């Protein structure tokens, strides 16, 4: 056998022996075991940092190659669990202090600009006829008070004028008054009737005038169309005042009342706040969105607000009394019990059931369970809840019997 062959055989033998020793090596029984915990605390089990369901009775590595971390037994205080400070640091845990004070009922929502419906003028004819000489041609056209909107040719109006002239010639006062009232009922103005009375000449087309300044919000006809009293010829709205319609969630419906202050911000006016008040709270909720519609009224002399603009709305409701409140992100919502994670210091945490009140401005009122000055976990509390088996601690506080965590079997053990 050559020297090279001898060296190869020796290397292969060393690899086989090392592999066999590695398979039979049990680190749990070796003298190099790390201490159970700081200050001789009892270790319940070892868990993978990235998979809390992977548990072992001895230290080692997770399937991802990470060192297992110990989970210690609860302290003497009920419900208190400990997490390795290194894990707490890796999780990026942040805390905040529960505060006591007045919490304002502040509603932050969205809305849109709309016409002030009190200024809308819907224009219909009172007789059948043909629309001629239409002076506005599209939605959005500006109109002025007294402007002729269109002229109407109606055989009914022509006949009514002829009957009125006949009544004048008959010198029958009752017939004259009846004919005059009929003309007014058919849509002729007092000025037009006086002209007819003076000139004694029938007008084939009757003019229709705008009653106020504004813009055409709706145009439903074109020149030459045949119209009836049911035809919505056009709608004219005043833009000097507008509404902003906001949607309020059902849970906040009791917070808003007429007269409450409101702030509005629009995307095309960044940094500019418009201040107004709640004008009206609608009596019913939208059955689809489950929201309550709230109306704000704003003056719009500069025409900054245009119908259908999107707006961000903040409504300031009444203040609460003195309450304890915490950041909203600190709250862990459960099916039957809400809770927060209290930071007790030195890696000690406790899940604390709480009864919550209103939520406003990123804060949640705590009716019971937390006192002012308590330190609450605001970031990483869900991971702490998973890593530290806080669910089991909470169940023990409620008197629920759970399986002891140190009896959790290994994943590798088959089910019996």
Q: Tags for this entry?
A:
single chain; 416 residues; conserved putative lor/sdh protein from methanococcus maripaludis s2 fold; Elongation Factor Tu (Ef-tu), domain 3; 7 helices
How many structural domains are formed by the residues?
4
Largest sheet geometry = 6 strands, antiparallel, barrel
Q: What sort of overall outline do the alpha carbons produce when their principal axes are compared?
A: elongated
SSE string, helix = H, strand = E? HEEEEHEEEEEEHHHEEEEEEEEEEEEEHH
Please mark out the parts with pLDDT under 50 across 5 or more consecutive residues, or reply none: 19-38, 397-416
* Structural class by secondary-structure content: alpha+beta
Q: What portion of the residues fall into strands of 2 or more residues?
A: 35-45%
**Structure annotation, total helices:** 7
Strand order of the largest sheet: 6-15-18-17-16-19
Mean pLDDT: 80
Q: Tell me the number of strands.
A: 23
CATH topology of the largest domain: OB fold (Dihydrolipoamide Acetyltransferase, E2P)
Helix percentage range: 10-25%
Q: Give the terminus-to-terminus CA distance.
A: 55 Å
At the first level of CATH, the class of the largest domain is Mainly Beta
**Would you identify the CATH architecture of the largest domain?**
Beta Barrel
Cα-based radius of gyration, to the nearest Å = 41 Å
Question: CATH superfamily of the largest domain, called what?
Answer: RNA polymerase II/Efflux pump adaptor protein, barrel-sandwich hybrid domain
